[in-house]
């Protein structure tokens, strides 16, 4: 009885305190088990699909191709900066490589209905771009449609059935493309297989049929060469009647041109190209007329909301889908082999009208984005090529859905980070072009731009936190590198572009990206003060410039004067400098000063110029603000104190140039404060009237203020000085090249002279030997 009462009390106590939590944990556990079960089912299904689609080549020899799995991306907090910048983002899906053996003699059996075509092995490996394109174009539609010969409707029986099933489309073909309905009963239209990258093989066919086909192939060998007359005929047909048959032949020939440099005996192309003019003609005709034919037969429509789309449910789209995929994949393949800038620009431009048609083929689209971004972020590319590639990216942002836009944004950011790894005088202009152009993409869809920008800025903050917490083994190098600096500067460009009051006034609402200003400023200020030594003063100046841009564009106050005063009070600026003959350090392309510059007059003068410039640029932002006198007073007091201490020193650094510059700056700041006091003495509103306070001197030109006029004059002087330095740099580069050429010529002459001397010496040696032999003969005679 006592035991039962104790059990009852324990049960009630358990129900009161713990039962609810236990039930909730059981529910969570059940949900987790259910989710894991679904994931296992999906993995098993994917494994079966991989074995079916990717194992055909191995099954031909009885070997099973192993299924490779992608490694999951590392968490942001666990990645090093190298992993982060070398591919920490899972942006583009890469095809899993196949390791199956090829069939005997390099041939595979004829593809059965519903079976995937074998992938071609590229010379660069299964993970290359070319193999990804082949996989996309050779595996059928992304939607799982059966794209066999009969489905494409290219035979006489299929077109007869089309007349009954879809009389409207049949009538459309009669009116617009009568050639498509002219069939020869014995003709074999195998263009679709050629377009998709697959060739019909001879294995599994009767011997008589193989003999007939070999005979017909031997007779057709002579007609395989592509001629300019054939291209002119296709050009005329597409220009006059938008012929689909001519378009198919053009795409086949264009594919042969794209694979021209590939030496693969097993991959026999329909046409051979032996003339450079023929190659040029087929490129121009295909890139010009194929988009026009597609637009004629399958026009791009615009919805009521302004969205561009293509009707993918019609028979026309299913008929032309393989042509579109083959043409796009051939362009991607061709881009990898071109080097001429004009041809690259023409080829990239041809991708723009194809983008609405490629939205249904996600794998091919991702490969295309990867290729275009590579040209956009490549330092060796010319400016026109990079701009053309960017226009393709922007067009894709406009016509694509949310998923496509996200892929473009992530690929653009990773391309920017990878392209800014090497920063010098020659590459800084291209890096700035990438920043300014990519910043525009984040304003097309600001809701998506906010989520992607937030995740990237958060990742930068995590790297900064890890460097602060784990301050060992040079962990600061994860932050103090060009890629991190350019990333912070890029987000400053993005927010400056889309969060300015003018942009918000045009849009009629506040920018969604404005919420990112505070976290970006905090991360930048933290990175600036991570290592407060004179070695990294150039990095501090780089980040201050990015924050000044952000403050100027968004009218946001950012406290930067204290960071500049810390530089003046550093030990580098107090100790006497060493004598040196070093050149002036270019702070625009440096985040770290060489150790040879430390404690030198050149470095101290450069730091002083940067401090004066940045302080003037900082104060000129608020030269019209009603609170300027109170705002500038603490800085004026500290600058005067620094000047007073530097004059009192009997020993140490007496930098007269920096002192005179700071004296002039203090005078201009005081004059501007007096100017504001005179203006606000005439106002009749109180400080509580916020609207009137914000409107104070808003229409007054900042260049006419005392500090504004000083800043304008300083900018002109710096521009002239920079121009002179750039001309001197180009002259030095020219002289260096001439000296190298002269040295090379001298070396070549010396090498040729050594050969002559060696020959002469050899002749003398032979002559000496002959003389000795003659002396011996004379002795014998005696």
UniProtKB/TrEMBL annotation:
Pfam families: Noc2
Bias kind Basic and acidic residues: ranges: 114-124, 717-739
GO CC aspect terms: Noc1p-Noc2p complex; Noc2p-Noc3p complex; nucleolus; nucleoplasm
Spans annotated as Disordered: 36-79, 95-160, 191-224, 713-782
Origin: domain of life: Eukaryota
GO annotation, biological process: ribosomal large subunit biogenesis
Bias type Acidic residues, positions: 191-203, 740-757, 766-782
TM helices/strands, residue ranges: none
Location of the protein in the cell: Nucleus
Predominant subcellular localization, coarse grouping: nucleus
Keyword field: Nucleus
PANTHER family assigned to the protein according to its UniProt record, in alphabetical order: NUCLEOLAR COMPLEX 2 AND RAD4-RELATED, NUCLEOLAR COMPLEX PROTEIN 2 HOMOLOG
Family: Belongs to the NOC2 family.
Listed name of the protein: Noc2p family-domain-containing protein
Upper taxonomic lineage: Eukaryota, Fungi, Dikarya, Ascomycota, Pezizomycotina
């Amino acid at each position: 009885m006592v035991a039962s009462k104790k059990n009852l009390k324990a049960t009630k106590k358990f129900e009161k305190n713990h039962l609810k939590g236990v039930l909730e944990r059981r529910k969570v556990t059940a949900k987790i088990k259910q989710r894991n079960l679904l994931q296992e089912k999906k993995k098993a299904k994917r494994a079966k699909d991989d074995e079916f689609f990717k194992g055909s080549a191995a099954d031909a020899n009885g070997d099973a191709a192993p299924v490779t799995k992608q490694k999951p991306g590392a968490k942001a907090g666990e990645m090093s900066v190298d992993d982060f910048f070398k591919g920490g983002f899972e942006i583009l899906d890469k095809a899993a490589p196949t390791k199956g053996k090829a069939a005997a003699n390099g041939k595979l059996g004829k593809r059965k209905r519903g079976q995937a075509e074998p992938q071609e092995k590229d010379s660069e490996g299964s993970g290359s771009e070319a193999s990804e394109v082949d996989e996309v174009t050779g595996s059928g539609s992304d939607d799982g449609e059966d794209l066999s010969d009969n489905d494409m409707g290219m035979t006489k029986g299929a077109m007869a059935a089309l007349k009954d099933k879809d009389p409207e489309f049949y009538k459309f073909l009669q009116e617009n493309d009568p050639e498509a309905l002219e069939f020869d009963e014995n003709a074999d239209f195998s263009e679709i297989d050629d377009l998709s990258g697959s060739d019909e093989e001879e294995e599994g066919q009767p011997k008589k049929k193989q003999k007939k086909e070999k005979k017909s192939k031997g007779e057709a060998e002579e007609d395989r060469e592509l001629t300019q007359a054939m291209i002119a005929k296709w050009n005329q047909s597409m220009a006059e009647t938008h012929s689909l048959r001519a378009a198919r032949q053009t795409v086949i020939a264009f594919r042969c041109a794209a694979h021209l440099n590939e030496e693969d005996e097993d991959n026999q192309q329909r046409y051979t190209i032996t003339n450079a003019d023929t190659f040029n003609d087929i490129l121009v005709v295909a890139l010009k007329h194929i988009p026009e034919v597609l637009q004629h037969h399958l026009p791009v429509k615009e919805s009521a909301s302004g969205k561009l789309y293509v009707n993918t449910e019609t028979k026309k789209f299913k008929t032309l889908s393989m042509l579109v995929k083959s043409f796009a994949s051939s362009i991607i393949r061709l881009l990898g082999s071109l080097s001429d800038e004009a041809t690259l620009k023409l080829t990239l431009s041809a991708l723009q009208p194809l983008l609405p048609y490629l939205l249904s083929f996600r794998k091919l689209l991702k490969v295309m984005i990867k290729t275009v971004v590579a040209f956009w972020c490549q330092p060796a590319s010319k400016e026109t090529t990079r701009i053309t590639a960017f226009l393709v990216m922007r067009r894709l942002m406009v016509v694509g859905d949310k998923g496509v836009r996200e892929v473009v944004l992530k690929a653009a950011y990773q391309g920017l980070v990878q392209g800014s790894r090497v920063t010098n005088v020659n590459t800084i202009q291209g890096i700035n072009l990438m920043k300014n152009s990519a910043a525009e993409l984040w304003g097309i869809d600001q809701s998506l731009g906010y989520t992607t920008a937030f995740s990237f800025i958060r990742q930068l903050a995590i790297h900064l936190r890890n460097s602060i917490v784990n301050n060992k083994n040079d962990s600061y190098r994860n932050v103090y590198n060009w890629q991190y600096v350019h990333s912070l500067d890029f987000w400053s460009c993005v927010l400056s572009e889309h969060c300015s009051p003018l942009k918000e006034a045009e849009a009629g609402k506040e920018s969604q990206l404005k919420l990112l200003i505070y976290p970006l400023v905090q991360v930048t200020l933290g990175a600036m003060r991570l290592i407060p030594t004179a070695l990294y003063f150039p990095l501090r100046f780089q980040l201050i410039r990015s924050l000044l841009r952000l403050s100027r564009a968004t009218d946001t106050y950012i406290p930067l004067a204290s960071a500049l005063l810390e530089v003046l009070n550093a030990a580098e600026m107090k100790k006497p400098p060493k004598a040196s003959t070093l050149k002036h350090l270019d702070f625009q392309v440096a985040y770290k000063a060489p150790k040879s510059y430390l404690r030198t007059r050149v470095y101290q003068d450069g730091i002083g110029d940067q401090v004066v410039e940045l302080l003037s640029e900082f104060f000129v932002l608020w030269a019209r603000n009603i609170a300027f006198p109170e705002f500038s007073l603490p800085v004026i007091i500290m600058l005067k104190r620094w000047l007073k201490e530097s004059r009192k020193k009997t020993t140490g650094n007496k930098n007269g140039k920096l002192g005179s510059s700071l004296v002039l700056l203090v005078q201009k700041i005081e004059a501007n404060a007096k100017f504001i006091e005179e203006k606000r003495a005439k106002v009749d509103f109180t400080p509580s009237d916020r609207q009137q306070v914000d409107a104070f001197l808003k229409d007054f030109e900042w260049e006419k203020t005392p500090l504004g006029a000083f800043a304008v004059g300083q900018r002109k002087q710096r521009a002239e000085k920079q121009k002179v330095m750039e001309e001197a740099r180009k002259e030095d580069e020219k002289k260096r090249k001439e000296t190298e050429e002269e040295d090379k010529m001298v070396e070549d002459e010396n090498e040729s002279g050594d050969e002559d001397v060696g020959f002469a010496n050899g002749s003398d040696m032979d002559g000496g030997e002959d003389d000795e032999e003659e002396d011996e003969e004379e002795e014998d005679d005696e």
